[in-house]
Amino acid sequence: MPLFFSKKHYLLEMIDFYLAKASACMDTFLSAFLAYLQDENCETLQPFVDQINQTEAEADDLRRKIELTLYEKALIPESRGDILRILESVDKIPNKAQSVILQIDTEYLHIPACFKEDFQQLAKVNFQTFGQVAGAVRSLFDNLKEVRKFTAEIGIKERASDAIERRLIRKIFSSSAPMGEKILLKELVIEMGNISDRAEDAADRLNIIAAKRLI
């Protein structure tokens, strides 16, 4: 196999490892949030906090390694900038998922039972966006025409998230909960919704790059 193709294959393997690690971070986010809905106990949440911190740090290390590899080994210079921008956009998604779990942990948030079903739906739909992002990134290298299929699904999930956010915020502020609790819960809703917003930002960038390559 020519050296160039060998190096390119190595790069694609690294990107796939990165996506797998970022996906593991998202898995922990969802598991942590659902566990917290069942038992609002910091001791219950702590193992998930430790795990998401470690996994997100490992994903960051992989991303930096990919960036160094792109420059040090002079790989695909015509696409280097696009790949770096994609990785930067994608990395913001698990970062935000991690920050949501840390927010719950540090603020000792109480989520009343009447809101739990909506919060569960919000967590799941935002979690699902990353799988579509990962699929779009992989398609960027092996099937450009599939990119738009994944990014269209991200748009659907993002709109679903927005609808849940609006419904849940209305329910929160029409409830009898103390105002301080309402504000904290609203902030949590918005931060969770930011996960799919970041996924949509990544989708926009992926669509542009795919369109350029298809021309």
Task: Explain what the structure shows.
With 215 residues, the chain is mostly helical. The chain has a single domain, classed as Methane Monooxygenase Hydroxylase, Chain G, domain 1. 87% of the residues lie in helices and 0% in strands. It has helices at residues 3-38, 42-72, 80-107, 113-142, 147-173, 179-214. Helix 2 packs antiparallel against helix 3.
Main attributes of the structure:
215 residues; mainly alpha; Methane Monooxygenase Hydroxylase, Chain G, domain 1; 6 helices
**What name goes with the CATH superfamily?**
Phosphate transport system protein phou homolog 2, domain 2
Q: Please compute the radius of gyration using only Cα atoms.
A: 19 Å
CATH topology name, in short, is Methane Monooxygenase Hydroxylase, Chain G, domain 1
Report on the biggest sheet.
none
Strand percentage: under 5%
* Helix-strand category: mainly alpha
List the helices and strands and how they pair.
Layout: H1 3-38, H2 42-72, H3 80-107, H4 113-142, H5 147-173, H6 179-214
Helix pairs in contact: 1-2, 1-3, 1-4, 2-3, 3-4, 3-6, 4-5, 4-6, 5-6
